[in-house]
Each structure stands twice: as C-alpha cells, then as structure tokens.
Amino acid sequence: MLWIVSFLALYLLGLIGIAWISLHPIRTPNYISPAAFDAPQQDIEFESEGNILRGWWLEAPESKSVIIFAHGYLMNKCELTPEAVQLWKRGASCMVFDHRAQGRSDGCKCGFGYSERVDIAAAVREAKRRKPGAKIGLVGSSMGSAAIAFAVSEDPELADAVVLDSCYSRFPSASLGWWRFLGGKPLLVVMAPTVVVAAPIAGFNPFQVDVAKSLKLQSKVPMLFLHGDRDNLALPSEGQRNFDAYGGPKQMVWFEGCRHSEGRWEQPDKYRKVVREFFETYGLI
User: Fold this and answer.
1) pTM for this predicted structure
2) Averaged over 276-284, what is the pLDDT?
3) CATH for 113
4) What are the DSSP calls for 130-181, one per residue?
C-alpha cells in the first residue's frame, strides 16, 4: 500500500512540475529577421499589463494599414517574420512581436492565448499610435490565433480583418492535443491530468477557456480560418467548431495533408495567396 501512495505522490509532483514548466516556457532565440530578407527592421517596445513587449516594425511609408502577427507557443516573433515580409512587399506596414514570457519580452508566465489577448490589444494600440487612422489586420498562428480570437471577441474595434491559423477551440482539448502531438496516445493518457493541476498555477480556469464560445460574442470582423486536415494538436473538428461558431463574414481554407501550423511551410504558395487575397478583399493591401 505504501508503494502505491508513494507512486501516486511522485506522479502528482511530476504533473505539477510539468505544469509549472509548461506555464513558464523556455525562450526560443531569434533565428531570422526582416533584415535577413532585405526588409526594414526597427526595434520596438510597448507595455502590456506591466510587461514590456519587444518586437520589430516593418515600415511601409505610403501604407494605410498595419498587419500584426502573433506567434505560437514556444515560438517568438521570428515564426511569422517571413509572412510579414511578404505583406510588407505588398505595401502594408507590419509588426511582429514576442508575447509575454516568450522571446525577448518581459514576463515569466504564459497563458496559452488567454492571457495573451491583452498583448494583442496592446500591440494594436501601439500600431495605431504609429499609424493613426490605419486599418488593422491580425494574423495568428496556433496560440497566437487563440489570443487574437479572445481579444477581438472582447473588442471588435481592434481589427478590420483577422486570420486564424491552426487555432484550438477548447483549452482542455488543446492540452490533450499537445501531449498527443509530442508522444501519441500513450503520452496523452499519462499527461491528461496536467490541465487540472495547472489551473491554480495558471490563475484561470482552463475549462472555461473556449475560443468558439468567445467567437459567438461578435460577428463584425471578417475572419479567415486556416487549418490542416491532419492536425493532431488542434484537431480538424476543433477548427471546424470555431468556424461554425462565428456568425460574421468568414472563410475556411483547409490544407490537405498538413498537420499543426504546417500549411505555410508545406504549401506556402497557397497560404500566401489566400492570405493576400483576403486582405485585398478588405482593403488592407
């Protein structure tokens, strides 16, 4: 009996430790930049809930729009820099930045998109300060997509058009998907309770974090949903759930044979074409 209690105690401690590490992620170093693509690169800083967030600004002097990019979990501003350069070439000013607790921004705890919704609002304020009157576009990847969805649901005035790539729908499903993504079903089973023990550390109830439910709150902003039909982290059914929940102008594009956030890597021509045409439709480029 003692060994069973000891095993369960160690298992619980292990789950708590993994939950803490997950909420205090390792920081990915910069590995690419706008300047590497011969694009302008200006270091920027702005504040979000007491954290200084850092990023790069790509100025297009004649632009009347700003497109802001929000990266995924365990990533940084470099993740979507190539896409920012592509839209800068089309005449839009662009911003890529590091969310709290990631890249070179301040903070030590991430919220897997829920807390980062405040970072999105702060980034939009900074963009509007730099380009008064500009139209605002938002592009997210994975966690960044969730952050955008939550932010825009709270304040539809933040953006004129939104791209959500590989967005999870329910946080518990995303948590299970993460373990499935890393180690398949065996790891998923072992790590499933992590989402429960993480709640006190996270500071919010993960079972109430629901992108689709948030998207139902507004129907003003045009949204482009992108998803791989073999995504084993944010399952295709989760992407469809988000799309079905949204009542505003919307479009869904599936990337055949692609897993999580792979569309822009595996099918870059298709990805860039649909994003470009979407922003063209709503007058951002």
Assistant:
1) 0.96
2) 98
3) 3.40.50.1820
4) HSTT-EEEEEEETHHHHHHHHHHHH-GGG-SEEEEES--SBHHHHHHHHHHH
